[in-house]
Amino acid sequence: MVTTKEERIYREGKEEFYALIDALPQLIWVIRPDGSVVYTNQSWRDYSGWPTPYSCESEHHRLNGQQPVLDRLHTRCHANMLSNYAFWPQNLHPEDREHDLMLRRQAFATGEPYSVEYRLRDGRSGAYRWFLAQVAPHRNEAGDILLWMVSCTNIDDQKQKEERLHHSQECVDLLLNSSIVGVTIAEGENFIDANDTFLHMTGYNRQDLREGRMNWRCMTPPEHLAHTHQAHQELETRNYMTPFEKEYICKDGSRLPVVIGAVTLPTNSSRHIAFVLDNSARKELEQRKDTFLGMVSHELKTRSRL
């Protein structure tokens, strides 16, 4: 078959365009204003399991009344296959379909681009992954919308991290609201947040916290400073602090025996969260035990002399 120079140039340019689009890691497809899909790139076909390549450039020419003869059968065949296959709604997660449909209808009515996050099913594994979809219209010279271009970027790893952070934050909030253990968040030497349990334990209040009057160095007795500094050095190098016993100087000057451990916050390495257990009851029991043993020892020694 003899082709004209214009047809050859068009075909070569079209192949280069498809090769470029197919090389992109994003999932790309093109839809008509009626919502039917007329083109997907290789990344989408690999992800969805749809094997057959097809052309959107021919669809562009058809809508302009300029479709080359070579593409007529190609376009009609694959457009019908895509419409029958109906993978556009089927690959969306059921929980995301209504929201995406609402945005799509609004965009088609106004002609405005939009972006949305939703989950798409992997045709090979059946698993759903999060994608950021960016949808924009393609217009002719008269300003009429011919096609809508859709580009989807995989953001599943980011979503998983956000979910883990959200779960961690829920755990932190639960501990902060706990009456069982004192919880503090410190940046450098200053406490920037604490739960009510810790404030009650040490006699401080929220105003003291806001005005920066709570500092772990100032609240640590001199004899405990060396061990406390060593614990903070461990926190800086290992992102955790092995629990140890120390004392805090309370607001009224009294001393509070505690057991304390800490970890670096994953969202901000300059901050750490500490868990403080009131150890005064155990210390009092130990003191009573030592007093009792001292009395018994004294009594036995006294009787042995008789």
TrEMBL record:
One Pfam family named in its UniProt record: PAS_8
PAS domain mapped to chain residues: 13-50
Entry keywords, A to Z: Kinase, Phosphoprotein, Transferase
Domain of life assignment: Bacteria
EC number: 2.7.13.3
Spans traversing the lipid bilayer: none
Enzyme class: transferase
Any one Gene Ontology molecular-function term assigned to this protein's record: protein histidine kinase activity
Substrates-to-products reaction catalysed: ATP + protein L-histidine = ADP + protein N-phospho-L-histidine
Listed InterPro entries: PAC, PAS, PAS-assoc_C, PAS-like_dom_sf, PAS_fold_3, Sensor_kinase/Photoreceptor
Domain PAC: 114-167
Name the record gives this protein: histidine kinase
Taxonomic lineage of the native organism: Bacteria, Bacillati, Chloroflexota, Ktedonobacteria, Ktedonobacterales
